[in-house]
Amino acid sequence: MSDKIKGHASVIDSKRELMLSGPIAKVIVRLSAPTTFVMLMQISMSLVELSYVGRLGVDYLAAISLVYPFFLFVSTMSSGGIGAGITATVARSIGLKKKTHLSEIVSSGAVISLFFGILIAIVFLAFGKHLFYLMGARDSVLDAAVRYSNIAFCGAIFIWTFNGLASVLRGIGSVAPPARFALFGAPIVMLVTPTLIVGGSVFGGIGLIGGIVALISYYAIGSIYLGWEVWKLGIRMNWQVIGFGSGSYFRAILSIGIPSSAITGILNINTIMLTGIVGANFAPQVLAGYGAGSRLDLALLPILFGIGSAATTLAGVNIGASQFKRAIHATWISAMLAFITTGVIGVLAAIFPWFWIGLFSSDVNVLEAGSLYLTVVGPAYGFLGIGTVLFFASQGLGKLKWSWRGTLLRLAVASGGALIAVTAAQPFWIVALAIAISYVVMAAVLSKPFWSSSDPQTT
Question: Do 281 and 371 lie in a common domain?
Fold first, then answer.
């Protein structure tokens, strides 16, 4: 074995040893902090784009608002759905000391990412205009939505490649490269986005699509950089081993990635249903207050994705190495870290709700509704943290049965409870209470596989 190959192996081995025997809390922080930073940078880039698109006019803002939920789902699917399948499969391979199989996993993951990237582009090119029309877009709003969508989803293939490669690195325990790229790349995107959208002293700007062009360029260049980082670890593409047989890594990735994507989709449906229920049964100020309050739920996602992805990796590596007790122990430490972090944020939000709601509106009725929401739901944020992290850990196990049950129960309790409340003409705080209870229920259900010190894969 050459010195270069030995060097690649030693890097992976050192990370494996850290995850199998290092101080768990320290390892979780080391794995989660860079990933959280990457998520925060991605959100910041989107916020900068949104703020400058708003200066172009209401029609353009409405157009991007129609496209963004689908674009966000694609991004989430590529990182927390299929990407989670890649991370978990890589992590278990590392735990099993099957480093030579990494080329097969990366090759399979690359084909899957390319397939979904191309498929989604074709779907939105063919049906995007009809979809946005059904959502109420007309005339200039429809034209703008289609133009933005075409650029966004044709370029989304780079988001798939970027998140796929980042998922490989997370599975190995190498989380620094994506964070390094975000540290330098994201500020550049945020600097050039305003000029690309509204223009500057020299450059006239390209309008609505300026921000998405900058964002897609970020992911395209980032894909090259992360590909180089994977290459540095001695991992090469191996197209000859790709297949769908019983031992195929296609099956391993998709068996986690498809259900995870579906679960994420159900949670998005839950959000849409709740928004519709509140909007149809309460005053616009209550809907605005609910929207402002629930944005804090979404603002917790970077923290939870960071801790959760660390839980996926630690559970996968330790399950692969047959260290079942350590896998469970690491999962619960991750869950408790999420509980404390999100719980403290939630309690502070419940005590001082006006501080957050006031960022979005000064209307008295909006402040009242939003404050009521956070007062009721905020104390349950800790359970949202537990449930989310246990979902990620279940991906590491490769067993999502209890995640399915917990997600469906969360949907039933939150949306079902809210619907019953408004049918019975109950006040808004009852709807908020249903949402809070749904967080507790999901956490309780997802904890089931992790109460035993035996192999949780058999639970």
Answer: yes
